[in-house]
Amino acid sequence: MLIPVRTRRQIPKAGPSAAMLSVSLLLAGCASMAGLHTRARLDDPQALAVSHSLSGVTLSEAAWPQQVWWTDYGDAQLDRLIDQALRDQPHLRIAEARVRAAESMAGIAGAALDPQVNGGFHSTRQRFSEHGTVAPPVAGTWQTVNDASLGVTYELDFWGKNRAAVDAALDRTHAAEVDLQAARLMLVTSLVRTYLRLDAAYARRDLAQATLAQRQQTLQLTRKRVAAQLDSQLELTQAEAALPAARGQIASANEAIALLGNQIAALRGEGPDGGLAIQRPRLAPLGPVALPSQLPVALIGRRPDVVAQRWRVEAAGQEIKVAKARFYPNISLNAFVGVQRLGFDDFLSAGSRVLGVGPALSLPIFDGGLLRGHLALRQSDYDATVEGYNATVLAAVHDVVDQLVAMRWLDQQQQEQQQALGLARHARELATARYRAGLASYLQVLTAEGQVLGQQQLVIASEARQRELCLNLVRALGGGEIPIAPDQGKIQRSAHHESP
């Protein structure tokens, strides 16, 4: 589900009327910012060396995950589970509420760009002092003072303080929207990972059931050999003891299936009974693994955590502009119109009118270092945000390479496991044949069977890990295109917030 891109409000810039202010005031404002500047710089992702780590990996422009990448598993039940989770999971609704809160903050910041109109009415019954400033005949009498007015205030944003505040709020709104995408990706990958483990649990149960069936056949053979006085009660007891262990493996697999179904129900946002209706997964075979040919540069526009951090860098840069603008004079236009009258007689007549209009100017002269402290705080926040972005990009690139390294070595492990499984099966066949012919003991059969069982469990575990590594690669690549991503060049330009 794509989130609509919010664009910044088009705000007209102040005209040359700003030149009306005194040059000395400008110099005073600039001088007070002397020595304050940012220190962090955005690292270039292209400088991260990855060519050797990606050698031997198939690269393709089409290798980026699709927006609904989970449909590649070809499991209709999985698709339904994810659709329900994206609709009903409470944690997603929390992220959505944060987006709405960020949008509200942007609306609050945007209100400063428009004129503020306020109306009021006051009616006070009071006694005027006989010795005060009010002359007779009002002095010493009770009167009702009525005042109705309509006031208009408009701040002239010469220095871009309000525009920068709006831009910062919109950037943080974009970050919240991308955080929502990150929450969706985390939810979907968690559900898919649990679903993959559910599939592996069913495979382990199949293996345990096959092992039980095989041990039952061996028990029947042992009973025949005991009846023929070819084996003793010792071999029979060993064959009988092997059955509870196999049934215990089946019970363990059933426990895992039930718990994983419960976890899926929780991820879907429903009660435990929802997990009882989940059928066995029907996953399509894994396809070949390929990587996008634009790593690592394009990765910074794909991963939600990286994109959100980029928006926070931009917001921190705008907040520095707000802090700098506070050093300069604040100019606004004020006007009011209303009526004032003692009593209600002729309250709305022309003679009761009051009018006023004029500019207002405030200039920080001495604040004990308050403005410098605010600016230094914003600059340090910017430095921390930039370094957080750099660390996030570095971790993202390593995340991708980690999955590839694990896949590469897992492929070799699987080849060795398949060879070991083949040899173990052959050894079991030889041991069983020798046991039938009376040339081997049941202990040799049981040992060979245990080796086959162990290798089969390793194969199931490695196949499950292979699927999880492919899932981790999808997550590392961002899980789909992020519809909101700031221009990298723009952020590079905003990284230079040096004082004049």
Write a structural description:
The protein has 500 residues and is α+β, with helices and mostly antiparallel strands. The protein folds into two domains: 44-113 and 161-328 and 370-494, Outer membrane efflux proteins (OEP) (Up-down Bundle); 115-156 and 329-362, Single Sheet (Outer membrane efflux proteins (OEP)), CATH 2.20.200. It contains nine helices and six strands; from the N terminus they run αβααββααβαββααα. It has helices at residues 23-31, 76-88, 90-110, 161-227, 233-268, 304-325, 370-436, 442-476, 488-494; strands at 59-60, 116-127, 142-156, 291-292, 330-342, 353-362. It has a four-stranded antiparallel β-sheet, with no helix packed on it. It has a two-stranded parallel sheet with strand order 1-4. α2 (76-88) packs across α4 and α4 (161-227) packs antiparallel against α6. The protein is elongated, with a radius of gyration of 37 Å. It starts with 22 loop residues before the first helix and ends in a 6-residue tail after the last helix.
Structural class: alpha+beta
CATH-defined topology of the largest domain: Outer membrane efflux proteins (OEP)
The main pleated sheet reads as:
4 strands, antiparallel
SSE order: HEHHEEHHEHEEHHH
SSE topology sketch:
Elements: H1 23-31, E1 59-60, H2 76-88, H3 90-110, E2 116-127, E3 142-156, H4 161-227, H5 233-268, E4 291-292, H6 304-325, E5 330-342, E6 353-362, H7 370-436, H8 442-476, H9 488-494
Parallel strand pairs: 1-4
Antiparallel strand pairs: 2-3, 3-5, 5-6
Helix pairs in contact: 2-4, 3-4, 4-5, 4-6, 4-8, 6-7, 7-8
